[in-house]
Amino acid sequence: MNNVHDMGGQHGFFGPVEHAVDGRDRVFVADWEMRVRAWAMVLVFLQRRFSVESFRSTIESEPPLDYLRRSYWDRWLWALEQRVVSEGLVTADELAVGKSASTRSPGPAAAIGRWSPR
Question: With DSSP H G I counted as helix, E B as strand and the rest as coil, what are the percentages for the chain, rounded to 5?
Answer without folding.
Answer: 55, 0, 45
